Amino acid sequence: MEDLKLVQSQAFIDGQWVNADNGATHPVFNPANGELIATVPDMGAAEAERAVLMADKAFGQWKKTTAKHRAGLLKAWFDLIVEHADELATLLTTEQGKPYSEAYGEVLYGASFIEWFAEEAKRTYGDHIPSARPENRYLTIKQPVGVVAAITPWNFPIAMITRKVGPALAAGCTVVIKPGEDTPLCALALVKLAELAGIPAGVVNIVTTSAPVTVGEVLCTHPKVRKVSFTGSTPVGKHILAQAADTVKKVSMELGGNAPFIVFDDADIGKAVQGAIIAKYRNAGQTCVCTNRLYVHDAIYDEFMARYLEAVAAMKIGAGLEKGTDIGPLINARAVSKVEGLVSRALEQGAVLAAGGAVSDVGPQFFQPTVLVDVNETMDIAHQELFGPVTTVFRFSNEQDVIERANATPYGLAAYFYTESNSRIWRVSEALEYGIVGINEGIISTEVAPFGGVKESGCGREGSRYGIEDYLEIKYLCLGVGV
């Protein structure tokens, strides 16, 4: 990483590595041990506005490039990411905490969006519309929307950037990125590789800050920004929507979730346990599609829970770079405090602790993989996004009842269920009010399928052939040709 200088301590605006105007910096710590990794510029409104103006300036030329040219640059960026996957994964684990194997998987997953949209750049087709009058011809073309603000979280600090920047650049847009305050180094490393790939100055810009509200307000209200893509919590997403409304920007919102995981009585119990473990404890439970509510049918409850608790007990807690680690640290002390509070309140309200329930002796930011049973919908924990390694277990005996309980939430991002019945697969899939449904599968994310939610989990889709559409405007051309 030192030879390549992937660890950057400056932000990137208009093709230049720059400091904050006032020289301020903010630290980036390793969540596993609290050690300082690096410092990055602590920027504010002035730098954010400058980044927007430079992106707008670059847009004038970038939008004129051919789709084939943009595809070639994106492919070069993809190749560099894959070539340096080990360095990036090591940096990701050091900065964010997840186990190295998961970090490496994220790097390749993130790279896949650059490759996918390099290919999709050449497929933003328009239409010829049959004319209503003989003297006219009707056509549509698709053009880039303009400058895009990409506001990304800390839990997937590489993939959440590429999932936005890939389609934006493929469409001909330019981008200003504001990465998560806890994980700016992965974003800066990606941009370093984009620079090496030959992506022109001003096309990709990155503003680092410890003041997300100040920088975010500029990105969400500036008239030169024509689209905002945000991944994060629902309350923050609602605030961003309100800010973007004044200038009627296009928005993509990938917000919070409260994912149910339903295990029916005809499920393959071994596969269901395996799917539930990965869907719950990946990234120490810090994902928006993590299982929040585990519903288990009464007929198989005892057998399922015995095998589930055995699997939880076998998980290794440790630093992400240690061999065999399954559960890494939570991102910061605030995250630990939140999880502690959720578990404590659930126990006060009648939940029963079946495993874990406390901070691990491995370190102050490591929380034990926890299982709470006898949970019901009167408890606060049933209605909150947990974002930690905590399973809440509910019992059920009726298909319609569990569907109604699963849907009884303002969120609608991901849901999961296990069954061996083909007819039930269709009934339940269509009845669940979620944008993504995993059926006999605990890992659902891929670049080739659309990712996004309904209700208060957001709007728009990322990935797949649909993912580039939010970065394009449709223009109708009415041509008079005479008769």
From TrEMBL:
Family of this protein: Belongs to the aldehyde dehydrogenase family.
GO process terms (BP): gamma-aminobutyric acid catabolic process
Pfam families: Aldedh
Aldehyde dehydrogenase domain location: 17-476
Keywords: Oxidoreductase
Gene name as annotated: gabD
Active-site residue numbers: 254
Single GO term (MF): succinate-semialdehyde dehydrogenase (NAD+) activity
Domain of life: Bacteria
Enzyme class: oxidoreductase
Annotated EC: 1.2.1.16
InterPro entries per UniProt: Ald_DH/histidinol_DH, Ald_DH_C, Ald_DH_CS_CYS, Ald_DH_CS_GLU, Ald_DH_N, Aldehyde_DH_dom, Aldehyde_DH_Superfamily, Succ_semiAld_DH
Database matches in CDD domains: ALDH_F5_SSADH_GabD
Protein name: Succinate-semialdehyde dehydrogenase
